[in-house]
Amino acid sequence: MIRRLLLTLCTLALGLAAGAHAAEPIRIGTTQSLTGEFQEFGTNQLRGLQMWAGDVNSRGKLLGRPVEIVHYDDGSDPARSAELYRKLIEQDRVDLLVGPYSSDITMAASKVAQEHGFPMLTLGASADQIWARGYENIVGLDVPSTRYMDGALRAAADQGARTLALVYEENDFTRDVVPGVLSKAQELGLQVVLNSPTSSAADIPGQVKRRAAANADVIMSLHYLEEGVALVRALKQAQVKPDMLVFGVAASLAEFGQQLPGDVEGITGVTQWLRGVRLPGAQDFAYRYRKLYGYNPGAYDVLGYSGGQVMEAAVRLAGTTDRAAVREQLHTMTFSSLLGIYQVDADGRQVGKENYLLQWQGKDRRLVKPDKLAQSKLIYPMP
Fold it and tell me: How far from 297 is each of 70, 258, 281, CA to CA, in Å?
């Protein structure tokens, strides 16, 4: 009798231990820029990722385990991010990694992931250098830099544009985007009449003067928010008005319109996603996101959420959080996320989708390309 009781107690203890182990969370580590130059992007990516984790946990968890996002603020600093990813791996003992915002920061962070054999799904990072190093652990969700502006260039050429002025700040992102723009422009018959880098917002007026002399149909800016706002103001002051003004980053942000009230009508921008896009689940996500956070989601919120979706799909297909098994799925699967089709090439570059084109119309951003997903028609020339 005593022996049977002891056996029962042991069996119960083992069951409780197994249950406790099964309930241990799947810990996904990330750093995001919650302060510093990229805080708007990083904050939005983190909110999207956290919303995804909440959705997974509310609908029955992942492989029977809750999902936990372990995150730190990298302060928009590559060295700080690398240090924190090392902490996530060595001290926090996370299971998997999701990348930070920006190509510069991701370059540093992904090196740490590779050294430790951790698969990392990058979010808002598109510099081709990230994948040119042969890191088998790094796969991308964002469209690669060399193809980043293809849709915008095609839209301009289709409207009859013939000349292009290209202005940008030199960094890891633009080092790849610029050659891609030049190559695609040549393919489409667009003559590049100005190719002008800057080092800061203070250089913007000089760029405007050079563009005015070049008299291009299209001005394409690869600047972030601060420099993008400065460019629009400088163009207005100089009374320079191209047929199309298109941004690689700045115009996709709501803050762009907030900082330029009355001056954004007709400006176009490249985006990975926009509220109103005719993709499955987009409207439901936008409604729930606004209810949760109090404002409408943008591309970087969706990058965070979609990053979670892709990682979830890889884990479910692998049936485990084993890093080698998850890495294999991230490299081989095709998955339809909120952002669009996820599929990578042998080096881990995203090849499943192309960026979209938006235009500021009536104080709001409207998706205008591709036609099958568009909310409105592209207005060209800009009013």
Answer: 22, 15, 13
Rounded CA gap, 35 and 122, in Å? 19
Residue 96: which residues within 8 A CB-CB, separation 6 or more?
26, 27, 28, 29, 118, 119, 311, 315, 321, 323, 326
Tokens of 214: 């070049």
In tens digits, the chain (383 residues) has pLDDT values of 444 433 333 433 434 444 444 579 999 999 999 999 999 999 999 999 999 999 999 999 999 999 999 999 999 999 999 999 999 999 999 999 999 999 999 999 999 999 999 999 999 998 888 999 999 999 999 999 899 999 999 999 999 999 999 999 888 778 889 999 999 999 999 999 999 887 666 677 777 777 776 789 999 999 989 899 999 999 999 888 999 999 998 998 889 999 999 999 999 999 989 887 888 889 999 999 999 999 889 889 999 999 999 999 999 999 999 999 999 999 999 999 999 999 999 999 999 988 999 999 998 999 999 998 899 999 999 99
Entry pTM: 0.80
* Residue-range domains of the chain with CATH: 27-143+280-342 (3.40.50.2300), 147-271+356-373 (3.40.50.2300)
Nearest Cα residue to 123 out of 105, 146, 111, 147: 105
What is the C-alpha separation between 145 and 204, in angstroms, rounded?
23
CA distance 168 to 182: 13
Please give the structure tokens belonging to residue 241: 């008005």
Alpha-carbon distances of 37 from 227, 271, 355, rounded to whole Å? 12, 19, 23
